[in-house]
Amino acid sequence: MALLAEDLLLLLLDDRRGSTVVDSTSVDYALAGSLLLELALAGRIDVAGEGSSVKKGRLYALDRDPVDDPLLDKVLSRIAVEQRKPESWVPKLAKGLRSDLLRRVEDAGAVRRQDDKVLGVFPRHRFPQADGSGEAAVVEELRRALEGQEPTQRAAALLALLSAVDAVHKVVPGVDKKQARKRAKAISEDVWAASAVASAVRAVSAAVAGAVTASTTAAVISST
Question: Which of 89, 132, 138, 166 is the most buried (most CB within 10 A)?
Fold first, then answer.
């Protein structure tokens, strides 16, 4: 099964143009958040609460056993020795992550790399769709969830991350933007309400949204 991060990356790439459907920073932070959610869903990490030996609000390792994926295992090993809040981990994990994931989905045959130059000078790399069967299945699962079907935890996690970067309507064609936002938010809250990983999902989703907002604000300030 593909990683959440791989599914998320394919969703956030325009199938024809091969560029991202939201800004690069939002993509990178959402991908970083997806690694944390994957580890939370696997029961490997959680957010410290009251009475924990770890400082409240910080991610820590529940189980240090490898999950048999080099990317996830690397993140898990870092969290095992360095407890930080999700909002600190998200920008740290985002560095270089998209390139690693692009290589993985390209090797899997889901995208093909196209290199060219903007204005004949600036190098540009794009990754249009090569085999859309896997992505199509994910999109259909998200669509069913948005239309009222009980979502899987993976679908709910993807919707939480897509909501954090306001991209639900951009990756599920034909949905009403306002209704999709509302339904995705409800799913993000309801599915995890009684889950053991509820605190981690909420914290990571909030961290992604906060990091995106902060970067956008900084960009606006620097341009004025």
Answer: 89
- Across 151-161, average pLDDT: 92
CATH superfamily, domain 4-212, is: yeast vps74-n-term truncation variant domain like (1.10.3630.10)
Which residues make Cβ contacts (< 8 Å) with residue 16, sequence separation at least 6? 128, 129
Q: Which two three-digit tokens encode residue 176?
A: 């009403």
Q: Which tokens in the block code for residue 27?
A: 């993509």
Looking at residue 218, its amino acid is A
125, β-bridge pairs = 115
Instruction: Kindly report whether the global pTM for this prediction surpasses the value 0.90.
Output: yes
Per DSSP (E only), the strands in 48-178 are 59-61, 114-118, 122-126
Q: How many residues does the chain have?
A: 224
Q: How far apart are CA 166 and CA 124, in angstroms?
A: 25
CA distance 41 to 221: 37
40 contact partners, CB below 8 Å, separation of at least 6: 46, 197, 200, 201, 204
In the chain, alpha helices (H):
4-12, 24-41, 70-81, 86-94, 97-107, 133-146, 153-164, 168-171, 177-190, 198-223
User: Model confidence over 4-58: pLDDT tens digits?
Assistant: 999 999 999 999 999 999 999 999 999 999 999 999 999 999 999 888 889 999 9
